[in-house]
Amino acid sequence: MNIGNYLSNSPLVSREASLPSEEDGEGRWSVDHLFLDQDAIPTLVEVKRSTDTRIRREVVGQMLDYAANAVVYWPIESIRAKFEASCKDKGIEPEPALSEFLSDDINPEQFWQKTKTNLQAGKIRMVFVADDIPTELRRVVEFLNEQMDPAEVLAVEIRQYIGRSLKILVPRVMGLTAEAEKKKSSGLSKQWDKSSFFQDLRAKRGAEEARFACKIFEWAETRNFRIWWGKGSRDGSFFTMFDYRGVPHYLIAVWTYGKVEIQFQMMKMQSPFDNESKRLELLRRLNEIPGIAISPEAISKRPNIPLTIFKNEDVLKKFLETLDWAIQEIKSS
Questions:
Q1: Which residues contact residue 277 at a Cβ distance below 8 angstroms, ignoring those fewer than 6 apart?
Q2: Which residues on neighbouring strands pair with residue 247, listed in sequence order?
Q3: Cα distance between residue 18 and residue 235, in whole Å
Q4: What Gene3D superfamilies does the database record attribute to this sequence (predicted)?
């Protein structure tokens, strides 16, 4: 793990995030920083100077106190509210900011639900940051990280080097022993590509459904769509993106479990489908196709349809023609 990249690329939920010690209780403690990564794993960060004597032992008990109470008493609604408040302080909208950060195979609502699940399962990350990590703390961190599963414990030493008017900060991550890596590697995400996607789809759903997905992929390629491959640990996906005048438009996603998602949730962020009537029109056109019956309540979500409906080639033809209509609507907006 490159902790520098991790912290800079993970959304900061809150500084001085208050932690309750009982259900519905007021905040008893405050962790220095709370981050969330793309896998919805809450990361508690405590920062101490090497001159602070608490860096040797007291900070460990302090962090374990935070973690033990967070997984029991920290409501997801509170974490979400902290993130939204942090975004507003920066003058940005929370949902678009989160959507931009997330990988292709998860939407904001799923992300918050996953955060809740991770908290309840104790799947959190504890990070100690200091300009100098004492040997005693490093040994404790390595021991805890090897013993704790699914929780993760790390220390980051950030040394400062100055010379000729140049200042460099060099981070060093501690706690990632071979044994700890082995224990925690089973749930890592993977980067899918064309070869792995279609191989997995054929294995899970058979050659026929893989052929339908291939036709959709070829349709997107002939229109010079940008293809984004997912990073799911179990299921592969590809998202079709139509870039027009510098704006990316998500249309559909295809999954190796045999579903095609209509990306209403992403479409509603860009013209013309930010207009509800336009999304309803697209919904109407889709529902005219045999085998498709999407509820009107789904025009702000990501409803899916099975690849099996494309056994009738005319159904696939009408489906792709409907997507072509959506493209023309985008161009005309």
A1: none
A2: 244
A3: 36
A4: 3.40.1350.10
